[in-house]
Amino acid sequence: MRTTDAGGREAGRREGGRPSIYDVAEVAGVSHQTVSRVLNGHSNIRESTRERVQRAIEEVGYTRNSIARALATSRTKRIGVLVDSAVEFGPGSTVRGVEAAARAAGYTVTTASVGEDARSGVGDGVEYLMTQGVEAMCVIAPRSSSLAALRESSPRVPTLVVAADAGDGILSVSVDQRKGASEAVQHLVDQGHTRIRHLAGPLDWLDARERERAWRSTLERAGLEIVEPGVGDWSSDAGYRYALESPDLGTGTAVFVANDQMALGVIHGLHDRGLRVPEDVSVVGFDDLPDARHFLPPLTTVRQDFHALGATILRLLVRALERDGSVDGATTPAELVVRESTAPPRGSTPD
Q: DSSP characters for 80-146?
């Protein structure tokens, strides 16, 4: 039953029941209305009060009843995430970034995956998420085919696309692929390399296209020769085959690889071909896999901050809900991480 303490506050914990906001209020020394405002993200709460309520929530073990909240407020605070190619590092890491940001902000996430057939998979995924009562939707659409299917499906809630170069009329956010790739290639140029090759990812992938364009434009600005890139499938095996079989790589002194997984295969293939990294060929990747620092040699690469990306996604979706969808897209920075897989070409000195 509900009781009152000496100060007149209701202490609403039932014997053996789950903690309520009244228990949180009692521990925090505030009213239950204040606890409710903190839980719902009201801005007119002192930071010291907010922190005291948060500590009380942890102390009593209070968890929100999302069904009751939805009935009381007509809001589910549920975000839908539709992800294409969830097994790949970038899309999978983006999902985890969104989930972490949503939990911190008091939202829940429902996820649906797209199979090989993006056209039917995207439409089915959108409909599934709508039946789950999502208030807004994040679509991780790395392939142009999934982006085209999304345009046809027309979700009925504020929708943000996680994709590089998503095109006009689509609210989008992504890591700054072009700037990150440009810095990676410029690093090789600054070291004195003049024959810089590229192993691209599948060119149906928007991020792969952006990285390839950045490689090409950086070489053009430097006045260097452009040899058409190889194309892989993101796997180590693709990198290994490229390193063993590509005649163009054999005439280069450096290679920018579109992801770390293929870069691992390139390093292996170069070794089997009798070439050393970085003494004979410098190698740069993209992603900064958790294991990239343990490659032999440790890999120079471009780091994508998926936690920052998730926070940006959630912030934009919440703004879209508050402003009826009228917000701008954004990019988050990429960071070049220089390790031991790159060095000046033999017989040269960098500027």
A: EEEEESTTSHHHHHHHHHHHHHHHHTT-EEEEEEE-S-HHHHHHHHHHHHHHTT-SEEEEE--BHHH
Give the max Cα distance, the chain. 84
Q: Which of 77, 74, 144, 140 is nearest to 104 (CA)?
A: 77
Judge if the upstream peptide bond of residue 345 is cis by omega within 30 degrees of 0.
no
What radius of gyration do the chain's Cα atoms show? 25
Query: Token digits for 80?
Result: 């839908």
Tens-place pLDDT, residues 70-82: 444 456 788 999 9
The tens digit of pLDDT for each residue in 306-331 reads 888 988 998 888 888 876 555 677 88
The answer to whether 82 and 126 have CB atoms below 8 angstroms apart is: yes
d(CA 106, CA 123): 28
Residue owning tokens 């405002």: 37
Where does residue 169 fall: left (phi above 0), alpha (psi -120 to 50 degrees), or beta otherwise?
Answer: left
3-class DSSP string for 246-273: CHHHHCCCEEEECCHHHHHHHHHHHHHC
Domains and CATH numbers, the chain: 1-63 (1.10.260.40), 74-175+306-332 (3.40.50.2300), 177-304 (3.40.50.2300)
Host H or E run for residue 154? none
How many Cβ atoms sit within 10 Å of the Cβ of residue 336?
Answer: 19
Instruction: Among 25-29, 214-218, 225-229, name the one with the lowest average pLDDT.
Output: 25-29
CB burial class (10 A; 0-12, 13-18, 19+) of residue 242? Answer: buried
Cβ-contact 192, 349 below 8 angstroms: yes
| Residues β-bridged to residue 138 | 81, 160
Res. 286: pLDDT tops 90 = yes
Count the alpha carbons within 13 Å of 104 in the hemisphere toward its beta carbon.
Answer: 13
pTM of the model: 0.75
